[in-house]
Amino acid sequence: MRVRVTFRVNNRGGLVPFHHQYLISEVFRDILQRESKDDLKDYPFFSFSGIKGQTRLSKAGLHYNSRRVTIVISSPNADFVEHLVGAIFRNKEIQLGALNLTPEMAEEELPVTLHRETKFICISPIVTSDDFHNPEHKLFIEPSSNDFSDQIYDATITRMTEFGIDTDAIPEVHKFQLIPDEDYLDKLRASNKKFSRIYPVYYQGEQLEARGYTFPFTLFAAPEIQDFIFTCGLGTCCSMGFGMLDLVNSDPTERTVPYKSAESLVST
């Protein structure tokens, strides 16, 4: 399930760092710690997007000039999504950097049918390793290499198994290949732009770092695997704000329906 939460911006022009997934992660973590039972306080099977809205760039970061912004929250566990979204709505104000927000509306994205070949874009960076204390975990891996695809596959199968999915029962589960859009990567290289960076990550209250990648790609995998990563994120650190995907050439706002009213979410 994917739910799009719309927030009213209380201080238009409020500043947020360019790479702000860790800020959202800490806010969600604090909300879950305060408002959840033990089995949901550190629930790992979800992902979320960055803050989407009209921005003005400065050296300090992003200034949000729109009256409203959105964050997409996704998980294969619909009960968890309802719990987190409800907990968000019980907070009249949410502070992300210097941006002050009030939750206003929630919409559900309609399910999509995914096949063995799907073209994705990243709406938050992909992280291949969460071995934070291994100095090699931040090393650059060429996205077109088998090593990159293999690490993503291993992380995905591990998370699916931990979620409770019998991956051995999935036909041709080992037929998995991630192929980046090389034309896109070549254009970035030619213009000296980056598709891979070191991002701040908060893990168990400690600020760490991870290498993330952002580029369009085609994924060849079983539909069951495609469905899982579309709702739970790709790679590692997904509950910390990484690995969220969307479909290439698709406007998700065209496939949304009302979710639950703010009043019913607050009383959830």
Question: In a few lines, what is going on in this structure?
Answer:
This protein has 268 residues and is of the alpha+beta class.
Enter the CATH topology name of the largest domain. Alpha-Beta Plaits
The percent of residues in helical segments reads: 25-40%
CATH class label of the largest domain: Alpha Beta
Low-confidence stretches: none
Reading the helices and strands in chain order gives: EEHHEEEEHEEEEHEHEEEHEEH
Strand content: 25-35%
| Class of secondary structure makeup | alpha+beta
What is the alpha-carbon Rg in Å? 18 Å
How many β strands by DSSP?
16
Q: How does the major sheet shape up?
A: 6 strands, antiparallel
| Overall 3D form | globular
Number of domains: 2
From the coordinates shown, what is the CATH architecture of the largest domain?
2-Layer Sandwich
State the separation between the terminal residues, measured CA to CA.
17 Å
Give the helix tally: 7
Mean pLDDT: 92
Keywords: Antiviral defense, RNA-binding
Domain CRISPR associated protein Cas6 C-terminal: 115-247
Family: Belongs to the CRISPR-associated protein Cas6/Cse3/CasE family.
Protein name: CRISPR-associated endoribonuclease Cas6
